[in-house]
Amino acid sequence: MGLLGRLTRALGLDRSGSGKGPIIHLPGDIREPRGLCLFSGPMESDVWPALFMASTLQRAFSEVELNVLCPGRDDGLFNMLPWRPKVHCYGNSPEMPPSLSENGLPDGSLFFYPYSKVIDSDVRMLQSVMRLTRIAPLDSPSDLVNLVVRTGSPYFPEKLEQMCGTLGIEYDREWKPTVQRHAERAAEQIMAPVTGRMLPYIVTTPSAQKILERSRAEIPLRTVTLSGQSSEFKDLDRELKTAVVAGASAVVTDSDDIWGDACAFGVPVVGLDREGSFMKWHGVEASRKEEDFVGAWVGLLKRGW
After folding, report:
1. Count of domains for the chain
2. How far is Cα 116 from Cα 142, in angstroms, rounded to an integer?
3. How many CA atoms are closer than 13 Å to the CA of 204, on its beta-carbon side?
4. What is this structure's pTM?
5. For residue 254, is it within any domain?
6. What is the pLDDT of residues 252-274, one digit of tens each?
7. What domain range includes position 37?
8. Domain containing 191 — which CATH number?
9. Which of 5, 178, 236, 237 is most buried, judged by most C-beta within 10 A?
10. Is residue 9 helix, strand or coil?
């Protein structure tokens, strides 16, 4: 089936009720975009779908400059890509930064929102790009996205791969996040200041560790917590936190942020997702109840890593 046929079968198109959305010319606007912009959301785990999508866009549209909107704290993580895109940072809430607003994006640009749903914090930013073709693999339509691609998988990064397949964009299966050497060395110095050689450790959150301790579950290695007043690592910047998680033997957490880092780097992870809000990632499932969480941890210990 050709690109246009796949689009017809798989796209959910939802035009803004204001009538201000652009007319989309398929498949031409997808094959030959005049500009590219990718949004990375405000939550720490949001950066991973954006990075996986960025590697694909760089490869598929190598002659078109990729603009990225991301929180300032995540700026350095985009150095992990094959080459650094043009990064525009925002502050506490997502908005079009002056650096991009002043130069503008040409009509006919593609704006990628690589997430399953539109959250409240992103509404204002999406409203500012209504003249662009806004693409997302949403589970439900939104007036703020005018090109919704239905996917069979709820899991990342497969969800992005399926979206790209529908759009006729070759997905980059080869790219995986790799900690930059300077961040790896800095993490080694912080974790092992004398020898510079890190012994095996488990990254956890204080509340998750207390659950394991109450249940008398075995914790066979040194634990490192990246949050809480007593943590010596709570003030690390984003790159160093990422390096610490990537270097762990395992992760046990009730934080979506640390869960996302562990999933992206393929670190064995056990999660407690009480609200059902963790990012869905291929091959791993978070527990909703404490007893299941403890059981998952015991199961991981028995399997090993």
Report:
1. 2
2. 11
3. 19
4. 0.90
5. yes
6. 999 999 999 999 999 999 999 99
7. 3-167
8. 3.40.50
9. 236
10. helix
